[in-house]
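Memo to structure team: turn this sequence into structure tokens by end of day. - J.P.
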Amino acid sequence: MSDQAAAPVTSLPVPNYFELLGGEDTFRLLVDEFYAGVAEDPVLRPMYPEEDLGPAKDRLRLFLIQYWGGPNTYSQERGHPRLRMRHAPFVIGEVERDAWLRHMRHAVDVLELTPELDRMLWDYLERAAFFMVNKDL
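Reply from structure team:
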């Protein structure tokens, strides 16, 4: 047996993407930019029954914050996300998906993230948009 002590095992910290992406301010800007486009979009706006888009903005912001490692306020207030179930009452086809992605792409671009963080965020948002399609399944 060697007299030398074994090197301590260290693990790298798990990155907190919520913080890496810029925290709550980043998600607030992302969602505000996204909904500015939705407010004027003839395809998407009718999908939001509330007169004021504020509650929808709050729900999306809280969901994204939680998903990316921030506080779990969304689940505390609304329970499990169940995204497909919550969106089931709305017909979401290619046209709706593409409109959503167009506004979200603009919102992500406004954030001016590093290419790596941009790609990571966009990959998730794009997958989520395709997952929500429920028309012509």
